[in-house]
Amino acid sequence: MAAFFKQRNVIAALIIFAIIFPFITNNTYFVHVMTLSFIWMIGVYGLNLLAGYTGYLSLAHAGFFAIGAYALSLLTTKAQLNYWVAFILALIITSVLGLVIGLISLRTKEHFFAIYTLCVGYIIYLVIDKWDSLTGGIRGLIGIPGPGNIGPIEFTTPVSNYYLVLFFLLLTVLVMYRIVHSLTGRTFIAIRNSEDLAQTIGISTMKNKLLVFVISTFFAGLSGALYASFIRFIGPDIGYISITFDLLTYLLVGGIGTLSGPIVGTVLIVWVSQQLQFLQDYRMLIFGPVLTLLVIFYPRGIVGGIAESLMKRKQKKQAREEQLVMAKKSVAATAASNENR
Amino acid sequence: MEILIQQLFNGLTIGSVYSLVALGLTLVYGILHIPNFAHGALYMMGGYVTLTMMTSQGMHYWLAIAVSAIVVGLLAVLMERLVFHPLRHAPPIHDKIAAIGILLFLEALAQFIWGAEYQTMASPYGQIINVAGVTLTMQRLLIIIAAVVVMIFLYVFLKKTYTGATIIAMSQNREGANLVGINTNRVAMLTFLISGALAAIACSIAAPINLVFPGMGHLVITKAFVIIILGGMGSIPGAIAGGYILGFTESLGATYISNDYKDLIAFVLLVLILTIRPKGLFARGGH
Amino acid sequence: MFLETKNLTKKFGGLVAVNDVDFSIEKGKINAIIGPNGAGKSTFFNLISGFHPPSSGQVIFKGKDITRLPSNKIAELGVARTFQTTNLFDQATVLDNVIVGHRLRTKSNLVDAIFRTKRLKAEEKQCREKAIEVLEFVGLTSAAYKLAGSMSQEEKKRVAFALALATDPEIVFLDEPAAGVNPDETEGLAALMEKMVSAGITVCLIEHKMQMIMKLADKIMVLNYGEKIAEGTPKEIRNNEMVIKAYLGGSAIA
Q1: Residue C17 contacts B, CB cutoff 8 Å
Q2: Which residue ranges form the domains of chain B, and what is each CATH number?
Q3: C51 CA: distance to closest CA in chain B (Å)
Q4: Residue whose C-alpha is closest to residue C123's, from C140, C144, C109, C134
Q5: For residue A338, what pLDDT band results from cuts at 50, 70 and 90?
Q6: How close, in Å, is residue B84 to chain A by CA atoms?
Q7: Cβ separation of A203 and C103 shorter than 8 Å?
Q8: CA dist B193 → B25, B40, B158 (Å)
Q9: Which domains does chain C have, with CATH numbers?
């Protein structure tokens, strides 16, 4: 349980830091970078619930990110809908498409699922790229409005955008935390450990996998919609497989199947990448091998690695204490038998 | 009619390349049961090595291909030793992610060494010839011939040599192969060597009619996955047949349906197959 | 009849794994299925628990035809099973791993999870209590907070039992419950099975350890090449010519 509280503390500290961050730095660029990494985190959380907690590696995640982004953009620019109406519709559209694709793709397992979703990702990308009349094709869409006012609150400055995105991120983390620590979350984890076993203990695996797939696409869509209205222009490349790989890298480095992993991984890589601007195109020279090495040596990333070593230390301590108690007992027993003699 | 023949010929050309790539992928799958997502990166590396050998070393085209096949083959062996071997007992999600890591690394590496721009590979066989009323370049004809020659070599190797037989044996029954004293480590390395070499050859013969760039492996590898699912994961004849089928479908689809959407054909095909048969076309029944 | 199979048959391609098996399981008893390797025992289990649909025949549980039900529905009806190997979440505690076993008796969904409703809290408590109860039943109370990854082979077997018991079953199918554990531990597991029966749970197991089966089982069915060749009490089986011939290659059961 100690590790669990630790994880909770880490999250609490991060939240406080995130809230005061714009006041610490007066650099608008840093606020911009941070906002963008929050947006990625939301998407990474979606991927985490599916790949990390349920064991299904979807390579179509960027596709759903793009669907969320394009849905919002088209609904606001072409259909001229109110921003928040469009926002909610974008989430619904992404989730419904997620439901349909999930229904089919989840009948496949393991490698087939990965390959299937890889192809679904390509289809989404290619459709966006080629459907010129709707999506603007390779030119993309411009003039996407920023978040609309909510009553008196406006989102015109970078800092206000920062807080809006932070709000959605915290909501995401809260929802994820509650899912993972509920019976529903336990059900997902049971499916990850062994689908056959889960099924025999009475879990409808298809229903639960579908649920998690839809949740995952919902957050990909949320992340995409926020991205579109933050960056204000989008192109088909946001649906390309390399975005999925980026998200996967954030997740793996931070810790797949851990709650704070998406935050740790995303912040770390986004900031390291910012520091290594000159490396931008070549950052995968570093992160590629990092990804591979992590999977071999620390399959649960930074957070998982730390949690595991804490857990081990605790167990060792427990074992030592037990030994101590046993030793005392045997000393007492010897003493008692001596007295009896 | 002429267009049809031309397109059939094109299909044969593309199909040859697809088949070679899919062959490497299916061999590895058959032996180790991992879908090697980094296979596309091997393909891309093959193109660059050949190109470099030709431009900076002034090597002859065929010699450059041979060097490239060896270099990329060894690269694949290295990959097996350093990554897939240590992960052989890990959950299935791990080797996929590891392969993606390698893919990202090799692409960045290629971009680092050779730059991001598209490059052309000049083939000594640019001549245009006329066969039965169809105009084509010598290179396209060579692709078809080279692919067939490579396939025959592979066939003879797998069927007629002891080493080849061990690969077949291991893909059919790993434990059994181990029991009869086959060195499974050696076979795994050998399989990766062959798969890397096949990828390099495929890319090198296809490059003169395409372009060489860091992301050139993406579409090819994804289509190769479609092919091996089409032909049965691990099946060698399936990979060859599937490659040609996809090649024909694409070239005909490009002409008669839409050139814009021709790349979609493969993926839609796969989505359809897996929708109807979640375990692939030729899944073995039961357990 | 408590649970019975009628003409149960399973073909894989041309291979008949289970051929026309009629078998009835007696309530409140220990039923055993034995047979040489590849006799179709595991397939038989898989047919009953809904993992494979049979090619023909029926499975009837308490008068209800469960032949075509998916395995999770069969579990809901009170039919549990274990596997030869149990994949657990090694980085979590034993207790955490067992809690989900009672999930099928709960109703809370995603909305309950997100809003942490009363229902969720009550059901979480219920699942946790159930897990503690079954861990105590299988004798793992002291190991409840150990990491699943650090358990011994025998403890893993017991966790598999606990998971099955957490589903509130009326009958438990155990697939080689004592494989890979030493003779002393086998005794312990046999005692546990008897304890399950005295708690009102019917047991049906596949096992290779003859001595254990002969001592433990009330009723035995022998499968060979997918066919039932004998059925009866240990004594009857021991003296059955067919069994001795087909299964033991002529020598009597020790």
Answers
A1: yes
A2: 2-276 (1.10.3470)
A3: 10
A4: C109
A5: low
A6: 9
A7: yes
A8: 12, 15, 14
A9: 3-78+169-248 (3.40.50.300), 88-155 (no CATH)
**CB-based contact (8 Å) between A334 and chain C?**
no
Chain A residues with CB under 8 Å of a chain B CB are: 51, 55, 57, 104-105, 107-112, 114-116, 118-120, 122-123, 126-127, 130, 241, 245, 248-249, 252, 281-285, 287-293, 295-296, 299
**Is the CB of residue C111 less than 8 Å from the CB of residue C120?**
no
pLDDT tens string B87-105: 888 887 888 888 888 998 9
Mutate to test the interface with A, among B25, B33, B104 (most CBs of A within 10 A): B104
Q: Note the ipTM here.
A: 0.90
By C-alpha distance, which of B43, B110, B263 is closest to A236? B263
Q: Is pTM, for the whole model, over 0.90? A: no
Provide the Cα torsion C138, C139, C143, C148; round to 10°: -20
Query: Mean of the pLDDT values across residues B112-120?
Result: 87
Query: What CATH number did the domain enclosing A106 receive?
Result: 1.10.3470
Position A137 pLDDT exceeds 70 = yes
What's the domain count of chain A? Answer: 1
User: Best interface-test mutation with A: which of C90, C110, C170 has the largest number of A CBs within 10 A?
Assistant: C110
Which H or E run contains B136? strand B134-137
pLDDT in tens, A139-189: 888 888 888 888 788 888 888 899 999 999 999 999 999 999 999 999 999
**Dist CA A68 CA A76 (whole Å):** 12
DSSP, collapsed to helix, strand or coil, labels residue C217 as coil
Give the chain B residue nearest A106 (alpha carbons): B278
Chain C CB contacts of A316 below 8 Å:
none
Q: What percent of chain C has pLDDT over 90?
A: 43
Q: What is the pLDDT of residue C251?
A: 47
